[in-house]
Amino acid sequence: MRVGDPPTIVGHECQRCGRCAFPPDPYGCERCGAGVDELDEIELAAAGVIHAIATVHRHHHARPETPFTVATIVLDDGIALKAVLTGDVSAAAIGSRVRGVAVPWETADDGTEVVDLRFEVADIGRGASG
Fold it and tell me: pTM above the 0.90 mark?
């Protein structure tokens, strides 16, 4: 992820077949077998549509605190990913437009603020990123 307003997601695009991947493929293209040297880094807009949604009431980690809502989101660029929702999650439903937001997660030992990419329901047009 690149933090900005709006944040973007870093993925790979295959020069040979055009397949986009997130997370980036560290070994090469899964579709055509092109080597990692044939993958270009691309920025994907952190905007898309919810295709599945669930509320988590118990899990094995301290964070995020329960309950929290996760969604499968299909980005406008075609990539599907799972992410935690933030903001007014009661407005989230299958088909809802969402956009990425950088949420403070923790402060590293060197004072650097670590952020997490979450998604919030947004009234934005298809293909827009903010």
Answer: no
CB 70 within 8 A of CB 53: yes
pLDDT at 78 over 80: yes
Share of the chain above pLDDT 90, in %: 66
Closest CA to 50 of 98, 89, 88: 98
CB neighbours of 101 closer than 8 A, spacing ≥ 6? 6, 7, 86, 87, 117, 118, 119, 120
Q: Which pair of structure tokens corresponds to residue 111?
A: 């004072």
Residue extents of the structural domains in the chain: 8-43, 46-121
Contact at 8 Å (CB) between 16 and 29?
yes
25-36 tens-digit pLDDT: 889 999 999 999
Q: If one looks up domain 46-121 in CATH, what number appears?
A: 2.40.50
